[in-house]
Amino acid sequence: MNLSRRTGLLLTATATVLAALAGCGTGSFGDRSAPDAIKPVKPVEQKQSPVVHGLPGMPPVLDPEDLYAADRPNKLSPVVKDFPSRVYVPNTESDTVSVIDPKTFEVIETIPVGRQPQHVVPSWDMKTLWVNNDRGNTLTPIDPKTGRAGATVDVHDPYNLYFTPDGKHAVVMASLDRELVFRDPHTMKIQHTEPVSCYGVNHADFSLDGRYFIVSCEFSGELLKVDTARMKVIGQQKLPFAGAMPQDVKVSPDGKRFYVADMMANGMWVLDGDTFSTPKLLPTGKGTHGLYISRDSREMYISNRGEGTISVFDFPQNRLTKKWKLPEGGSPDMGGVSADGNVLWLSGRYDAEVYAIDTRSGVQLARIPVGKGPHGLAVYPQPGRYSLGHTGIFR
């Protein structure tokens, strides 16, 4: 091959290589204003879940975005997995507890208790059900494994009962005494009494971190904010509605909002618990009373006692999406959701009956006759690691 041809081939090859290298960049080869041909790969940032610094001694929060994460269908704790499934109904005017088999929708036992039982409350360790005999000034323990009632315990004015998230205290809502009474969760001996200036303390729920709880005052239309560790009221406000009568309290799955049922305002008050802001009213129906979270944490069932309906609130959509009407009416009050999440159980306060409602369709499955004045019934057992009280608030 002659020299001129070899030189020509070499120049052609060099041009080809330079053209290929130029194609590796975003600009033309030799353009100093263009980015480098090879860039380092930027690492993908991993979204970090916020750390919840809970009340000391409280079981860790499983999911900061969903404080009901332990309440999934049939996710029963080893403590309760062998307990028979039952619905315990306190009859305030019959001084009894009706025990319903949820499979047959029949009352299988009637347990005599003290005067005016208001609520059946699972203990923090979930081993005992406490019947709040308000006017009898006693608590009746029931063993949920055997269904047997034990010896009553003297406790003054136990309208309702809660447990702090660390399991250190029972909190008696002494409605007429105008006190929050912190007691030993096993012996019920008094540890601290916190007087309140509002009237009719009755329901509550705890913040995501368990460091405070919001309390409703039924007869003076007020809300309290209570520091859990200090056992002290740290906030108080009057609801912006003449004649307000707040009832049940529930916190949203993400812990950012509290909802308070109001039977005279006919809706739910919505507020930021951290700031204890002035609440806004969301109308739901006449006589709004009980609030219950679905097993997937997406919905909340709201009993409207004055009109015989159940409203359904969708958390992701932040709005009411459905309303179910009981056939032939009724007075749906307090209750709970079955372990599998398919049935909502509510007492019929003024009709001496209990309602079983399909949570997938809103269809009434049964109306079961019980004693007079059925109130805070407990569906048991339910999923969860521990109980905060009332008719079953589980975390």
What do these coordinates show?
The chain is built from one helix and 28 strands. It is mainly beta and 395 residues long. The protein is 5% helix and 39% strand. A hairpin with a 5-residue loop joins strand 26 (353-358) and strand 27. The protein has a four-stranded antiparallel β-sheet with strand order 3-2-1-28, with no helix packed on it. It has a four-stranded antiparallel β-sheet with strand order 4-5-6-7, with no helix packed on it. It has a four-stranded antiparallel β-sheet with strand order 8-9-10-11, with no helix packed on it. The chain has one helix at 3-22, and strands at residues 86-91, 96-101, 106-112, 117-122, 129-133, 138-142, 153-154, 160-163, 170-174, 179-183, 190-195, 201-206, 212-217, 222-227, 232-238, 246-251, 258-262, 267-271, 280-283, 288-293, 299-304, 309-314, 319-325, 332-337, 343-348, 353-358, 364-369, 378-380.
Tally of individual helices = 1
| Strand order in the sheet with the most strands | 3-2-1-28
Rg on CA atoms, Å: 29 Å
**How helical, in percent, are the residues?**
under 10%
Largest sheet: 4 strands, antiparallel
Distinctive features:
395 residues, mainly beta, four-stranded antiparallel sheet, 1 helix, 28 strands, 5% helix, 39% strand, globular, disordered N terminus
